[in-house]
Amino acid sequence: MGDSPLWSRRGFLGLSVGVAGAAGLAACGGTSDSPAAVAPDVPKELLDAAAAAKGTSMGLLSQKLYSTAANDALDNSIKKFADATGTKIENSLVQADAGDVVAKIDAEVKGGVARDLAFMTDSRFIAQFHALGDLEDVTDVVTALTAKYGEPCAEAKNFCVFDGKWYAIPYHFIGIGSFLRKDWMQEKGITPKDTYSWEELRDVCLAISDPGKRRFGWGMTVNRSGDGNGLIEALINSYGGAIADNAGKKVTFDSPETVQAVTFLGDIYTNPKYKPMLPPGVASWTDTTNNENWLAGVLGYTRNSFSVYADSKTKKNPVYEKTHVFSDCIGPATDKPLLLGQSQGFVVFKGAKNPALAKLLAQYLVSAPALVGVSKEAPGLVMPAWEKVWDADPYFTSGDAAFPIVRKLSQQPLPLSTKNGLDFPQKASAGQQAVVAAYVLTDMMQQVVQGTAPAQAVTAAHAKMVQIFSQQGLPQ
After folding, report:
1. Angle, helices 454-471/440-449, rounded to nearest 10 degrees
2. What pLDDT, on a 0 to 100 scale, did the predictor assign at position 41?
3. 178 - beta bridge partners?
4. Per-residue DSSP letters for 164-215?
5. Rounded to an integer, what distance in angstroms lies between the CA atom of residue 156 and that of residue 255?
6. Which of 296, 360, 305, 324 is nearest to 60 (CA)?
7. Does residue 35 surpass a pLDDT of 50?
8. What average pLDDT does the segment 329-358 reach?
9. What is the DSSP string of 108-156?
10. Nearest to 387 by CA among 362, 366, 372
11. pLDDT at 34
12. What's the CATH class of domain 7-175+342-406?
């Protein structure tokens, strides 16, 4: 497959350096915090297992991280493994929010030209690839990693397992959080809290807004974007609504709880009362716009993966010191936030030319030595997916004040339940993931913003979801 705007390639040729050569390369970095200095030798057991693969090659597909430096740090760890094992590894980046990533990769698998290994966000993609028959069983790798590193992050056990078998190897945990400008709040005499209701958050955002000073409290869009999807679904869930039932098979979207949530959210974007807290152009924001505006210091609140927090820290943006981090908001159906976080999962595609080497690379990249350099360039966004990896490097335990929040999120007991019987995470569903990828939620909210009654918009979205579920082999 030729390169397109969605894909970029980096090729790494292993130099057959062996253990001694790799050790010399690591030593050149001294005690610097640069990625080259923190990626040490590949463990001997992996080197021994990879001996038969010397001189071979493989392809890796990496979900693009928001931080360019983190992508480069990952490249460095991959190169370290390739050099040490005498193999060639080509790493390609994919932008996961393009909307057609599953179709593209599925076509490659069916055409016999897919990469051997890839990592993708588990709650967004793994069920779809499994339903398409694109993935190999990797239970053997997860079993070996569990023996070495303890339990994987809690949510991965839901999104990577089908019929008792693992089809993705947890790679790194993705912190997701909510961020408020604590300095703006303090100016208004508002004390930051650990948990807010959505109504409380809306009112705080309005109170701290001042368009004359370029301060806009509500830094979220309902335009087509991953963050828009995340906001809408989280709010609906907290009100007691969901795309599907707990089994992930039956569409249950058109409910009074969903209509109530959509009505509340639509009011923020249509009621003149809240206009002062909406940033200019928010209706047409894309997936990086809230990051850019938060880092520019013009937003009072945003909800995001920790990419925006990481960027403010690594680039020494003054907004970092002014950020109040909290988990998420509660709604009428919840007593505590339903925030699960996400993890990236390694998958081995059917027809992989070098699956044995792919599995060994995955086992190296989940380890603390390979992960810490990436994490330092994306703090909070790239964190350990495995219990004992958290304690394997002091950076993960004490590198930032927000890390304990992320660790607690990754290891919390699941499921989290609503007052009306919904459990989160719900069973991984190709239908639900395809609905989110098709931007049915954001399109529904756009209709509401343009004047469609919430109940009517919800009913129309439900009909689209039924169609998508049926296309995914889940007839309604």
Report:
1. 160
2. 78
3. 303, 326
4. TEE-SEEEEEE-EEEEEEHHHHHHTTPPP-S-EEHHHHHHHHHHT-BGGGTB
5. 28
6. 360
7. no
8. 96
9. HHHTT---SEEEEEIIIIIHHHHHTT-B---HHHHHHHHHHH-PBPTTH
10. 366
11. 36
12. alpha beta
CA pair distance 59, 115, nearest whole angstrom: 5
When mean pLDDT is compared across 4-8, 11-15, 32-36, 162-166, the lowest value belongs to 32-36
Contact present, 312 and 400 (Cβ < 8 Å): no
**Rounded distance between C-alpha atoms, residue 103 and residue 342, angstroms:** 22
* Whether the predicted pLDDT of 59 surpasses 90: yes
Question: Looking at the domain that runs over 176-339+438-471, which CATH code has it been given?
Answer: 3.40.190.10
CA pair distance 425, 135, nearest whole angstrom: 22
Which pLDDT tens digit goes with each residue over 88-101?
A: 999 999 988 777 89
**Ranges for all domains in the chain classified under CATH 3.40.190.10:** 7-175+342-406, 176-339+438-471
Query: CA-CA distance, 330 to 370, in Å (whole number)?
Result: 36
C-alpha closest to that of 15 among 90, 85, 72, 92: 85
Which DSSP helix (H) or strand (E) runs through 347? strand 342-348
CA geometry: angle at 57 spanning 53 and 58, to 5°?
A: 110
Q: What one-letter code names the amino acid at 62?
A: S
The per-residue pLDDT for 266 is 98
If DSSP codes are grouped into helix, strand and coil, which group holds residue 427?
coil
The residue type of 423 is D
DSSP letters spanning 270-302: H-GGGGGGSPTTGGG--TTHHHHHHHTT-EEEE
Residue with tokens 């004390």: 191
Integer-rounded Cα radius of gyration of the chain: 22
Surface-to-core class of residue 142, CB atoms within 10 Å of its CB (0-12 exposed, 13-18 middle, 19+ buried): buried
pLDDT at 27 over 80: no
pLDDT tens-digit profile of 355-366? 999 999 999 999
Tokens encoding 437? 């990828």
